[in-house]
Amino acid sequence: MDMKSADIEKIVRQVLESMGSSAAPARATSASVPATARVAMLTKLEHFDLKEYPIPEIGDDDVLVKVEGCGVCGTDAHEFKRDPFGLIPVVLGHEGTGEIVKMGKNVKVDSAGKPLAIGDKVVTCMIFKDNPDITMFDLNKQNVGGADVYGLLPDDDKHLNGWFSDYILVRGGSTIFNVSDLDLDSRILIEPCAVLIHAVERAKTTGILRFNSRVVVQGCGPIGLICIAVLRTLGTENIVAVDGEAKRLEFAKLMGATETVNFKDHKGIEALAGAVKDAFGGYLADFAFQCTGSPVAHANIYKFIRNGGGLCELGFFINGGDATINPHFDICSKEITTVGSWVYTLRDYATTFDFLKRAKAIGIPLEKLITHKYPLEKINEALETNLKMEGLKIAIVND
Ligand SMILES: [Zn+2]
After folding, report:
1. Distance (Å) from CA 32 to ligand 1 centroid
2. 274 CA distance to ligand 1 centroid (A)?
3. What is the mean pLDDT of residues 192-203?
């Protein structure tokens, strides 16, 4: 057979290439992925069962994540107690984070374009299955209220659909972010923090929130407390926190509140508004964040705001009932600019990573928000602790 040396070279190159590609497996896998994974399945009201399922084969666009931890959200507590979304049986947990152990061959970068590899720490929560063309940049002006969320998906034959588990299967088309440069506690706090990044972005659209604004934050659960921290990292100096629990108000100071007002110390809204005014040295607030789910608290907050001031209402994640306000006194004559805020955009997620680093850099101890950590097998206890309103953020942490 007569063969030119150029042809031989070509064949040798092809052989070497094919050897190279067969040496690299089509699907990258870390050394030790077990055959099965446990999930905490909510099988009836107020009861999780630990179930074990085979870890399924992953598709070319999927990512298998070993769960490290997941925060317990108010939404999980509602689902645990009443199943308002009719999801039972369901694997809950949407504030989760973990490590990539297996990747489909098409997966190269995260939703922000950052490279992804085995061993990277990630967060995810959204699946845009109805509109796969939505990207984080299209969503600048639109929150993700309509998307599916891991941890609030109906059970299916894969089962690994929520973060209260050993492993979660992140399907192609979902958002995923490489957050390897954040510690575990920070990563567990990403989802709730994104809610506040979004709320403050909404507040800024009013043009009223400035460096020197007097800002009142009503409600010092995790959401209100993170709100204070976000305002501090933004450079807001003058923050008054309002709540009914001394312990939470102490925490508000740790997060950056300058003064606190316990509403239980003041009878009636006029006395309470007076106390807020005193806390600002004789001025009403320029801007207010309403972070409780109480209709009375919504009605009250207008009295804390000066003429021409602004309000961001973000406390009503779910329907908490009607509030009675006086449109003349509360909105019209005071010319108050109001914005509502719900969930976040994908861009807010990226901003949240920077916020967490900045908060750490200026010494805000955000990690102290996680007051309780439970292993997966104690998930029933974790939810009961949450329902008792003990502590602040409860988290499931796998070893
Ligand atoms: Zn949540």
Report:
1. 31
2. 34
3. 95
Separation of 236 CA from ligand 1 center, angstroms?
26
Name the one residue in this structure whose structure tokens are 């900045």: 358
**pLDDT for residue 94 is more than 90:** yes
Contact in structure between 305 and 331 (CB atoms under 8 Å): no
CA of 151 to the centre of ligand 1 (A): 10
What's the 343 CA to ligand 1 centre distance in angstroms? 9
Distance 257 CA to ligand 1 centre (A): 24
The Å distance, Cα 314 to ligand 1 centre, comes to: 13
Residue 252 has pLDDT above 50, yes or no: yes
Q: How far is the CA of 147 from the centre of ligand 1 (A)?
A: 14
On whether the pTM is more than 0.90, the answer is no
The predicted structure's pLDDT at residue 24: 41
Q: Count H helices, E strands: the chain?
A: 10, 18
> Which structure tokens are listed for 39?
């999930």
Q: Report DSSP state, residue 244.
A: S
Residue 126 pLDDT > 80: no
Q: How many residues are present in the chain?
A: 399
**275 CA from centroid of ligand 1 (Å):** 32
d(CA 273, ligand 1 centre) in Å: 31
- What angle is formed at CA 175 by the lines to CA 169 and CA 180, rounded to 5 degrees? 80
- Domains of the chain by residue range: 28-180+367-397, 193-340
Sorting pLDDT into bands at 50, 70 and 90, what band is 125?
low
- From 349, 342, 394, select the one nearest 74 (Cα to Cα): 394
Q: Band of the pLDDT at 11, cuts 50, 70, 90?
A: low
Alpha helices (H) in 205-345, listed in sequence order: 222-234, 246-255, 268-279, 295-301
C-alpha 72 – ligand 1 centre gap (Å): 7
> How far is the centre of ligand 1, averaged over its atoms, from the C-alpha of 353 (Å)?
17
If you average pLDDT over every residue of the chain, what do you get?
A: 90
What class has domain 193-340? alpha beta
Give alpha helix (H) positions in 92-245: 184-188, 190-204, 222-234
Q: How is domain 28-180+367-397 classified at the architecture level of CATH? A: Alpha-Beta Complex (3.90)
